[in-house]
What does this fold into?
Amino acid sequence: MQVTYPAAVIGPDDPKLSAANRGLASLVGHMLPRSTTGFQCVDVRDLAQAHVWLLEHPADREFESARYIIGGHFYPWNELGRRLEALLGRRIFSPRVPPLLMRFMGATADRVKKLVPFETQISAESMTINTQWSPADSSRFLTRSGLCFRSGDETFGDTIRWLVETGHVPHKKAGRLVPTGTVPVIGKHGAP
It folds into this structure.
C-alpha cells in the first residue's frame, strides 16, 4: 500500500465542489485576503497521474518509501493575487489582513455557527491554515517518479473557466478567461 498526502486539490470537473475549489471561487468572485504564508494546491489531474504512477510502481518494504507528499505549487498570497489578476486581466479586491485578526474571525465564526447554523468557509481551522501554512515539499516524489506538476496558470485557468461554466463564479468575474457572449451551462458537472 502507498499513501499520498496532497495539498489543496483543485481542478475542473469537480462533481461535489470541494472546499479548495469553493475557496478559489471565493478568491476570484469576492476577495483575496492577503496575510502571512500562502496557498498551496495541486491540480487534480496531476494527483490522478501521481496515483497511476504509484499503482504502476509498487513500494518496496520500507514504510517511509510508500508515503509521498503531493503538494503541487505554493503561492504566497501576494504572488497568487498577481497571478490571478494577470490571468483574469482585471483587479481582484485584495486587502491585507493581520493574521491574528483572521484567526479571531475564524474562532468567532465557529462560536456563532453553534448558535445560528450558517454556511461559511471561515472557521478557526481554515484561518489557521491561511495564516500558518508551511509549504509542503514534493521533491522526493517528483525525483522518484520523474513527473512534474503542470503550470499554475493552466490549473487556475481551466478551473476558473469550469467554475464559470457551472455557475459557481459570475461570468463577469472571469475577465478575459471567458470570452464575451459565452453562456454558462449551469448544472453540467453537478453544479446546483
Notes: Residues 102 and 129 are 10 Å apart (CA to CA). The chain has one domain: 3-96+129-177. Strands lie at 3-6, 8-10, 38-43, 67-70, 73-76.
